[in-house]
Amino acid sequence: MAERSKRQKGSNATARGSSSQHQLVDEFFTSEAQRQNYLAKFANRTVASSKYVDVAFFENELEKNPEQFGIFPLLKRAGLYKLLKNKKNWTLKIVRIFYANMKWDDVDYCIVSEIKGKEVKIGQHFFAQLLGCEASGNMFGDHQSTLSKVDGYDAQIVLKSLLAKPPEYVMDTTNLSASKFAFQNRLLHYIVQDYKFNLPYFIIEKMTRCSKTTSLSPSYASLISWILEKNGINPLTNEVESPSTIDGNSLNNMRFTFEHGRWIEKPLTKAQSKIVERERAQEREEAAQREREAAAAAAGGDGSSSHPPPHGANNSEVLGVIGHLQRTVDEGFGQVNNRLDDFLA
User: Fold this and answer.
1) Locations of Basic and acidic residues compositional bias (predicted)?
2) Alpha-helix residue ranges (DSSP H) falling in the chain
3) What is the rounded distance in angstroms from the CA atom of residue 230 to the CA atom of residue 13?
4) How far apart are alpha carbons 143 and 328 in whole angstroms?
5) Is the N or C terminus of the chain more exposed, i.e. has fewer CB atoms within 10 Å?
6) Can you tell me the distance from the alpha carbon of 158 to that of 330, in angstroms, rounded to the nearest whole number?
């Protein structure tokens, strides 16, 4: 009952105070200490670029090629559509300040931030209402130590959902287990197996880690703009950034061409092969970083998030997962398999 009471207290996002009640420092901060924290730790942080999905395009392709685009009904069933379609503009400084001022509220069991003298409290149920999903299901974060094994894993199901190829080109992967997949593919495993997971918890976990781990790029820029708008706070300044689109052009950029009613992969050029290898090297480094964070968490260090979510198993934001999906389709299963070998090495 105590846990339920805590979660209910943190169910809604509320903005307290107003800029008229405070003597703001540099327009955005309520104290010089707050401003100095931002300048020292967040002012130069790279913010992860947001993306949104042209859902109408992929739904149209789904009608023509259900085998190639069968993952999209699963994304909708997982409660991801509103998040994927969000194309709010954002401002780098506002996003950085949001993370610089973020704290964890142990009483209301939510994250708290402050912009322009207004406090914003965001709990799981607020995200559930905003995104049209549920604040329930399996709970996990985006680092390896929080993931639990899932019974009945079938890697072929996942890979057939990822690859825009005829089924006969998909290699036999029955010897792979869910525990051997990197995080992004594990999340896709939950989605394609229709295994319910708690999206609001995932977002809160990732946001908290971004605020505490300097090696992570602050994520969910478009989502933060949406949150601030819902709380009566203008999320933009004169320097506005816009999300990029995942659409038909993305498929073309991923070396796919539409022929004879299907999307067919084109072979890599030498230049493209070098780009793919750089991406694989980056993913290996990210995997190594996740392992370092897991080791630090086990040792009681600062490598994992500071808030405690004690119950249950634990975007790149979720849109980052879709970005990873693009790369997975781009490289083909053979390169996915190599990447898994690198991850397990």
Assistant:
1) 275-294
2) 2-9, 32-41, 55-64, 71-77, 81-85, 92-100, 124-131, 155-162, 183-192, 199-212, 221-230, 248-253, 270-298, 318-344
3) 9
4) 19
5) N
6) 15
Q: Angle between the 221-230 and 124-131 helix axes, to the nearest 10 degrees? A: 100
Phi, psi (degrees; rounded to nearest 5) at 181:
-85, 145
Q: Are 314 and 297 in contact (CB under 8 A)?
A: no
d(CA 253, CA 251): 5
Which DSSP state fits 165? Answer: S
- In this structure, the dihedral spanned by the alpha carbons of residues 187, 192, 193 and 198, taken in order and rounded to 10 degrees, is 40
Mean pLDDT score, 201-205: 89
Q: How far apart, in whole angstroms, are the C-alpha atoms of residue 207 and residue 221?
A: 11
- Indicate whether this model's pTM tops 0.85: no
The CA-atom distances, in angstroms, between 243 and each of 82, 177, 239, 314, 329 are 15, 35, 14, 28, 21
Residue 129 to residues 11, 51, 55, 183, 267, Cα–Cα distance (Å): 9, 21, 20, 26, 44
Identify the pLDDT of residue 339.
42
83, HSE (Cβ side, Cα atoms, 13 Å): 27
Is pLDDT of 98 > 90?
yes
Nearest-angstrom CA–CA distance, 300 and 14: 32
